[in-house]
Here is the input.
Amino acid sequence: MAEVRKKPNENSISLVRRFSTKLRMSGILLEARKRQFKEKSLNKRARKEKFLHKMKKIAQIEERL
Here is the structure.
């Protein structure tokens, strides 16, 4: 976790700027964004069903053409 302490005679804007910089440099925010939309991996049966469904749709589209 990024932590900054207010220095003497430091205004809040520069404190927030230092915190933002430290957070960006640590990579915490980037890691959180990656984890936000991570999907669980499917098991073998679910992958197979998804593939068959996709192939069925492709076949229907090709029949129309």
